[in-house]
Design brief:
Layout (H helix, E strand, L loop, with lengths): L9 E6 L2 E7 L22 E3 L22 E4 L7 E2 L8 E5 L2 E5 L2 E2 L19 E7 L2 E7 L2
Antiparallel strand pairs: 1-2, 1-3, 4-6, 5-8, 6-7, 9-10
Length: 145
Amino acid sequence: YQYASSYAGTNPLSVNGAAMGSTTSSSSTDATKNGVSTADGSGKITFSFTRQSHHVHLSGLDVEVATTQARTTLALGLASRWQAYGGSYGTPTFSYGDGLCIIDGLIKHGSWGHLATLPAQCRPSKRLIFNLNNHATTSRVDIET
């Protein structure tokens, strides 16, 4: 999606060199474009915006693997005092299927350390480390086995 509290605009989008029409940024977090694409031989998908308005915004991107198996989605159990942020961010969830686990949602009011415990089917075989946005700074999040 393309969130813009100001300086919204419309710009053409192409995916892997194929024109996908134009997208318009706004103050909504709804998707501004969706579709299906296939990665190239190296596993890469290329998204290109052509700047026609004053600004080009890319606030979020959701890429999923096409699956044939039904995906199961369940609420994510939070640790300590962590709680769902709520509103349009909904309840923190995890979904799994076809060997892929997706964690979604926003949490608040906890203390750093243990955030949540993933179920066994979503735990990696080795520690995974992510650098995430925490307002104007970054936070390291480890997902352990």
